[in-house]
Write a structure and sequence with these properties.
CATH class of chain B: Mainly Beta
Number of helices of chain A: 5
CATH topology of chain B: Porin
Number of domains of chain B: 1
Strand content of chain A: 15-25%
CATH architecture of the largest domain in chain A: 3-Layer(aba) Sandwich
Order of helices and strands of chain B: HHHEEEEEEEEHEEEEEEEEEEE
Helix content of chain A: 40-55%
Radius of gyration of chain A: 25 Å
CATH superfamily of chain B: Porin
Largest sheet of chain A: 6 strands, mixed
CATH superfamily of the largest domain in chain A: Periplasmic binding protein-like II
Number of strands of chain A: 8
Shape of chain A: globular
CATH class of the largest domain in chain A: Alpha Beta
Number of domains of chain A: 2
Largest sheet of chain B: 16 strands, antiparallel, barrel
Number of strands of chain B: 19
Largest interface: A-B, 49 and 51 residues
Strand order of the largest sheet of chain B: 1-3-4-7-8-9-10-11-12-13-14-15-16-17-18-19
Structural class of chain B: alpha+beta
Distance between the termini of chain B: 79 Å
Shape of chain B: globular
Helix content of chain B: 10-25%
Oligomer: heterodimer
CATH topology of the largest domain in chain A: D-Maltodextrin-Binding Protein, domain 2
CATH architecture of chain B: Beta Barrel
């Protein structure tokens, strides 16, 4: 009998343990965000709402992101906003717009400021929220955001006559890691 | 699927009997199950807590951001001048606030904050081990220029820029040496106030590098930026035996010329020009007093076409009137042309100059032609390079009679030991008119900090 009781104890314990674990893990898995779809997002180039610029060509964009243009048509000084090194959005901008690596980009601005051709170095921010706020607050600012990070507080400019929602848009950023 | 059949009757009876007798024995079993379940539930809660921790952190960060924003807005509100209420009758309802007004309220004011310094500083330096085959020269370690590069964004339109350089060794001005070998001096090499109206018009006043050719405005007082250990002889500084008015004190206007994909730029300068006393024993750059009322002019045009990234083609014309003591006035004209291709991994610089001195009342004109070509390519951290330079001045040249003919190749290797430190090894061969050729070897470390 004792053996039977012990067997029952073990069996019941196992059943309850499995049930408890399965019940316990289910809500947790539902509360965590699911894995992102492994598809690229478009990267929007954003400016302040007061900026009259609606569209830029890729060469113009390159000149702006390399500090070779310092003023908007309305006379405002251009303030370039970059995300921190290592962010995929920054890597896309360096590769597709500036056509430089991180070291070359830094040297370019260092040299430009040294010669006096570049008025100011880029402002570096850590998060998309920070970029959005900065562009919203500074009339001459230009930055970049994933399409999913856009909101009405900033304006996405068209690049080579294509908006970030259009087919054939040139700036794509890999999905965020799910960690 | 096959289900198990019913248990034999005796077994069932035995179990029932046992269950009656062992209620109190089973009770600990149930208690154990309960305790175990509770433990598991607690474990589950811990897991959930860990999962939610990240969310909580994000929320806390968001709260911090919002609190900071509230403080910022409160501070801005306190700084704002009191609003005088209009005498008009009060409106029953406030007008709707447009998005633009809201944005204007949130706009970051671009005004000077007296509590903070506006200065940004970066330093450059170099140390060289140099030896050559010239008589009386010794192999020596040399401290190069210690350059403090200071900038300041004074306002949206104004910017300040300066280079303060600590430099050892004697000056060499058109072949005349002055100063002590190992003493240090301080030079304000650049001091510029820039006004930036638009991309089409920028104005700078102060002491700047004259826009003659390409090298003089692309590279200033830092060897770290340069591929080679030093400047081409044509663009050597005035106090290092150079023949050009590298520095000017005056005003410079520059900007874009609307030209579409051609990318035309202009630079127009007016300044004191170089000192023209002879023999020159004073500072060659006229920082404070000009020795005459005539001013030097320089006009440069260059193109950076979109079609070829990194290409720059241009020319410049410089005009001054020198008034050496006990000599007639000398008209100085300097023509320069350049075609350079500069990319991050490759550079090819080509420049040619003609320095023309025309003394008044003398039919002879002294032309000093010169050129250099420099090519380099980056392979990882290594950048081998080659330069050939040439300058040919007449021995009767009235301003720099010591220059003569100099030409020869330079070979070198630049190794970027880190993003901010470069080590260069360079060999120079220089043929001179009427003198033995000079072989020189230099090992230099240049850095920024």
């Amino acid at each position: 009998m004792r053996r039977l009781a012990g067997l029952l104890f073990i069996l019941a314990n196992a059943v309850f343990s499995i049930a408890a674990l399965s019940l316990g893990s289910a809500p947790n898995s539902r509360s965590l965000p699911g894995p992102q779809i492994a598809s690229e997002q478009n990267l929007a180039v954003v400016v302040n709402l007061s900026n009259p610029v609606q569209s830029l060509s890729m060469p113009e964009l390159r000149r702006i992101f390399l500090g070779e243009r310092s003023h908007w048509p309305n006379g405002r000084r251009i303030t370039l906003v970059m995300m921190e090194p290592g962010q995929p959005e920054r890597a896309v901008v360096l590769r597709d717009i500036c056509q430089m690596n991180e070291t070359d980009f830094n040297n370019h601005f260092l040299h430009g400021v040294f010669t006096g051709e570049v008025l100011v170095s880029p402002k570096t921010l850590a998060t998309p929220v920070g970029v959005r706020k900065f562009v919203f607050n500074v009339p001459g600012a230009i930055g970049y955001l994933r399409v999913s990070d856009l909101d009405p507080s900033v304006k996405a400019v068209r690049i080579d006559e294509r908006g970030p929602e259009d087919k054939g848009y040139r700036l794509h950023v890999p999905p965020r890691s799910s960690k | 699927m096959k289900f198990p059949g019913p248990l034999p009757i005796r077994v069932t009876f035995a179990l029932k009997l046992a269950s009656r007798k062992m209620v109190w024995r089973i009770f600990p079993l149930l208690l154990g199950i309960l305790v175990n379940t509770t433990v598991l539930r607690a474990q589950q809660l811990i897991d959930r807590t860990a999962a939610d921790k990240q969310t909580l952190q994000l929320l806390l960060q968001r709260i911090d951001q919002l609190e900071a924003r509230v403080k910022q807005l409160e501070a801005a509100k306190q700084q704002a001048p009191p609003i005088s209420l209009p005498s008009a009758p009060a409106q029953t309802s406030a007008p709707p606030v447009s998005e633009a007004e809201l944005q204007a309220d949130n706009a970051v004011p671009e005004r000077m904050d007296a509590s903070k310094t506006l200065l940004r500083m970066r330093g450059f330096g170099d140390i060289t081990l140099h030896g050559d085959s010239q008589r009386h020269d010794t192999t020596a370690f040399s401290l190069g220029q210690l350059n403090l590069f200071i900038t300041s964004d004074i306002s949206e339109k104004f910017k300040f820029l300066s280079e303060i350089v600590f430099e050892g060794g004697p000056d060499n001005i058109f072949g005349e040496t002055r100063g002590e070998n190992n003493a240090f001096g301080v030079d304000v090499e650049r001091m510029v106030l820039q006004y930036s109206h638009s991309d089409y018009f920028k104005l700078a006043v102060g002491r700047y590098h004259t826009a003659i050719g390409y090298y003089n405005t692309a590279y200033h007082h830092s060897t770290w930026f340069q591929t080679t250990t030093g400047r081409p002889f044509l663009f050597q500084f005035e106090d290092r035996g150079g023949i050009l008015p590298v520095h000017t004190v005056g005003a410079s206007a520059s900007g874009l010329i609307p030209s579409g994909h051609l990318g035309l730029h202009y630079v127009a300068e007016v300044g004191n020009g170089r000192a023209s006393r002879s023999p020159i024993t004073d500072e060659p750059v006229q920082n404070v007093v000009d020795d005459q009322n005539h001013k030097a002019f320089n006009l440069a045009l260059f193109a950076r076409p979109d079609a070829v990234r990194g290409l720059q083609v241009g020319f410049s014309a410089y005009r001054d009137l020198l008034a050496p003591v006990n000599l007639p006035r000398i008209g100085e004209t300097i023509f320069a042309a350049h075609a350079v291709l500069v990319r991050s991994k490759f550079e090819w610089l080509n420049e040619a100059l003609l320095v023309r001195h025309a003394p008044n009342g003398i039919p002879r004109i002294f032309n000093t032609p010169g050129f250099y070509t420099q090519v380099s390519k980056q392979f990882g951290s290594y950048r081998p390079y080659f330069r050939y330079q040439y300058v040919n001045a007449s021995s009767a040249e009235p301003i720099f009679p010591d220059v003569g003919l100099r030409q020869g190749p330079s070979f070198g290797l630049r190794y970027d030991a880190s993003e901010t430190v470069a080590v260069k090894l360079q060999y120079d061969y220089t043929a001179l008119r009427g003198q033995p050729a000079v072989n020189a070897l230099a090992l230099q470390v240049g850095f920024t900090f």
